Sequence to fold (902 residues):
Amino acid sequence: MNKVVNNAAAAIHDIQDGEVIMLGGFGLCGIPENCINALVNKGTKDLTCISNNAGVDDFGIGLMLKTRQVKKMISSYVGENAEFERQLLSGELEVDLIPQGTLATRCMAAAYGMPAVWVRAGVGTEVAIGKETRVFDGVEYLLEMAFKAKFAIVKAWKGDTHGNLIFRKTTRNFNMPMAMAGQITIAEVEELVPAGTLDPDHIHVPGIYVHRIFQGDNYEKRIEQRTVRQKK
Amino acid sequence: MNKVVNNAAAAIHDIQDGEVIMLGGFGLCGIPENCINALVNKGTKDLTCISNNAGVDDFGIGLMLKTRQVKKMISSYVGENAEFERQLLSGELEVDLIPQGTLATRCMAAAYGMPAVWVRAGVGTEVAIGKETRVFDGVEYLLEMAFKAKFAIVKAWKGDTHGNLIFRKTTRNFNMPMAMAGQITIAEVEELVPAGTLDPDHIHVPGIYVHRIFQGDNYEKRIEQRTVRQKK
Amino acid sequence: MLDKVGIAKRIAQEVKDGSYVNLGIGIPTLVANYIPKGLNVTLQSENGMLGMGPFPFEGEEDADLINAGKQTITEVSGTAYFDSALSFGMIRAGKVDLTILGAMEVSENGDIANWKIPGKMVKGMGGAMDLVAAAKNIIVAMQHVNKAGESKLLPECTLPLTGVKCIKKIVTELAVLEVVPGKGFVLLERAPGVTVEEIRKATAGKLVVEGEIPEMIID
Amino acid sequence: MLDKVGIAKRIAQEVKDGSYVNLGIGIPTLVANYIPKGLNVTLQSENGMLGMGPFPFEGEEDADLINAGKQTITEVSGTAYFDSALSFGMIRAGKVDLTILGAMEVSENGDIANWKIPGKMVKGMGGAMDLVAAAKNIIVAMQHVNKAGESKLLPECTLPLTGVKCIKKIVTELAVLEVVPGKGFVLLERAPGVTVEEIRKATAGKLVVEGEIPEMIID
Fold:
């Protein structure tokens, strides 16, 4: 059950042009930095990226936008990226904006083998256009379909050789539901340990969901909004 | 945000005759022993119990069956209980048998604010009778409704004064989805600690889902099938 | 007339002891600073945290610990982390007692528009649609009129909607108003020094004024 | 003719390296003892565990650590625990590669009945309906005939169904058979010393015999 690959290049080697991939993280928090760099190096094109955000101009998914590798973004908020805006307005880039909770839940549906889920978000708005609606107990819901993504690429704090993952603080975000939603899940971790090292009660994503794992390096972990208070 | 109550009697004081309650545990593993005893002492009647199993004759929910406090069991497997069988065959007790995964998922649906879920289990069987079916991608699913239970009663290993819960080994079972599914969730724990003691990354159920918590005592933790191997 | 801090202070009075609260970006974030001492309030951040603390001290920022506005923050005693699916699960299940967020427009029946202006670059709705569709109690913090001087309290929203019939209360620089579907914007309080007439002029939707309208008390 | 251990040994040959396997109660549980050394196989227990180990040594039982048969068990290196909802989630999502379970009846098109006998006390289906509805590959371990001497491999099941068109393979004391919907029970192997004719006599459903049928190799 050893799922260890050598590095990011090996982990993403078979991601083809035109593929649908999920990328974990929220803003720049907990993003799979090594795999994004490897995708930029590999030059894979026409990707459809399911990711809550689209990075910034010079970091995260922004790096893949700069190299025009992304055909379509499926996100809830894409606001911090000038290149993104340019490509979107010029028609080079498609974007499908969906509510953040719906995005998370469509990942979770895939993770749990549910074909579709009923959600309230978007009822009565343009998000509901073309979608089936239904009233349960007097409340209206939309039918939203589970995502189908060939690859999910996530970043965890620690992982073991069986693929078990542990996250740190708010990095669990989309990494956890996406890790469980991919047909092939690739996890990069800050620290890779032998199976049996992690406390089985502390594991956030059981290894059955993870197909390839490696220890990343040179994590920048950039902060998007550095907000501080002064010591009195 | 202090949710601590003194004991099991205080925690269950307002559970009325005829109420729908969820009880965590799998077999006798991780059952809320203190609360079950308190319900027996209080003598609450006509209860509908959502619980994967029904205990054994002299432990767990079996104690409430002996005192005829249960009107209906909603379970997936009820096989280890002679008194249960007697009451069922005599018509004193109603039982609604549903697939174990469906049981868990109907709890989870309530926990996640989903009104209903599509599941495959039971398609083409008597479980499907009267249920809406639908084909997604060539596969048929049943529409199963989220549970509505006023009270969920669960047992965790550790908990803090804010209601955050941590489970040990296979006791997470139905305790975790039920803890998040109750309108009022009561948690008994082996060790109650001040908020801030538990590692925030290790918490299985966030306190927002838990309304009352207390440290139980005299846990018997009975083993249903003691299977061992011999040292060579 | 209130400044942003004043709006935040007034909304802070709406926060109840023992409650779980989700704060949007902007004025709502400021509310955290004015929650009365002695109240036990837990802040939920929809990126996956219960028990959000203040900004970190300089040099103690942790890239792995941010809020939904992507700002560095801290833990409090009793914090719990979780993933985005569970985060919105608890919101949908009605476990979050109060959501406070900004708006571009609110209508008489409680519709809200706060994510999209046709013709302008659309950044996305983030978690706003999920929050307004699910929270039990939603308070809008906003200016009464927009930069062009037009009322943001309308008979019907003109911008694409974020949610329908969901807003319960509005706090602006001029007033506190309750949204009663079928009735309109019921005026509850005036900002210090602001007259009912000034509020009426700034409100395009139906304003309901019943009896004497008290002035807000803000310390 | 095989005994229970023989059936378990033969099924163990079906287990692939690197796979995740769920074992039902009874003969399937025995399979774990005969998985070839050197194979990396992870056992899933649907009450919330990946990486199920053997029974504990006497005195080392832990009431908090049981399998889906409620037996005390142990961890292995790399075990992970989870709740029942996630457990069935991973089963439904097709992450479990192989499910092995017992049956009362199997039909020519792969239907299975294994939970209810009309007129007898019904104990419940447990997780069986979920497993047969979701697993990618399901092998049934059972006796070829019931105690009354009647075949359990039928044109159609007579007992209430657990699942439809889901069984891929059957291993009995007499034979290994593949279930090919529209075709029938395709005989793959004979148990040592058992003739095709004996198998045909014990099979009420359509038995497909193509070419020479080899004898199983079991050590």
Chain B has six helices and eleven strands. The first helix of chain B runs from residue 8 to 11. The CA atoms of residues 151 and 218 of chain B lie 23 Å apart. The radius of gyration of chain B is 18 Å.
